[in-house]
Amino acid sequence: MLWALRVGWLAVPLTVGPAIGGALDGTSTSLQIVTAALAWSAWGAVLVAVLVPRTTSLTVLRIGAPMALAAALWAGARNGVGFAEIVASAWTAVIAAAVLFIPDITDTFVDGSSYGPERRMALRVPGALLLGPVELAWAVTVASIAAGPLLLAAHAWIAGVIAVAAGVVAARFGVLALHRLSRRWVVFVPAGIVLHDPVVLGEALLFPKRMVRSLGPAPADTSATDVTGRALGLVLELQLNEPSTVRDGQTDRLLFSPARPGALLREARERGLPVS
Question: Is the distance from CB of 92 to CB of 76 less than 8 angstroms?
């Protein structure tokens, strides 16, 4: 999957480039240059990200891949639907879907930042953030990066300067917010299992092997403490031999939602944890 993503992204200039070029026909030279610079910079940043899988790379990829789709759709709306626009939209839609919805890719990038014998496996995005807040943070981030330079290229000097100044602050906020979602994972370490979730938990929780009673799919009638953030998908229940402090309370059962529950249970079994 990772190599397919790399090949697909390498081909983006060949598919999206002609559509964007056609959309810029008739605009000023300065606007064409700035747009090309932004497009190539974004493409280069994502290329580095797909070649070097890390948690930071995942954030770059989640911002850049939908940006390519947005650019292709913008070119289609400006040019009218032609062959180049159809190819560009279809190609970038496949890449964006792979980045956003295929758990194998997310896990590969998350685990790329592991140390030594660690194994990191991603958690699903909280359901409350999935439809609305995430898309808004992405839109604010992209607009903050592009608006200022494009306004300056169009000789809207005052608006451009204001947009650049505001964009620095807004882009930083948006990138940090999206990066927090990339930093949500379960970590298998020699000592046991760690839940690392700065969004829902705020701090990492280590559960040594001696504390783990069982790990498996959660029953429908469970009363365990829910730290999934109401994420969609299969929920796993971690049962402990003794209560642990979680979000200012004591509990011996936790619910969490990994991106690949089956793979996580296999990893747990291989590391000697009791799997039910």
Answer: no
Q: Write the pLDDT tens digit of every residue in 112-137.
A: 999 889 999 999 999 989 888 999 99
Q: What's the Cα-to-Cα distance from 138 to each of 50, 65, 69, 129, rounded to whole Å? A: 19, 11, 13, 12
Q: The tokens 């070097």 sit on which residue?
A: 52
Same domain for 171 and 234, yes or no, is: no
- CA distances to 9, 20, 87, 90 from 76, rounded to whole Å, are 19, 9, 10, 11
Give first-to-last CA distance, the chain, whole Å: 30
Same-domain check for residues 143 and 220: no
**Domain boundary at 127, 152, 182, which?**
182
Q: Give the model confidence (pLDDT) of 15-74 as tens digits.
A: 998 889 888 988 899 999 999 999 999 999 999 999 999 999 999 999 999 999 999 998
- 70 and 50: one domain? yes
Number of domains in the chain: 2
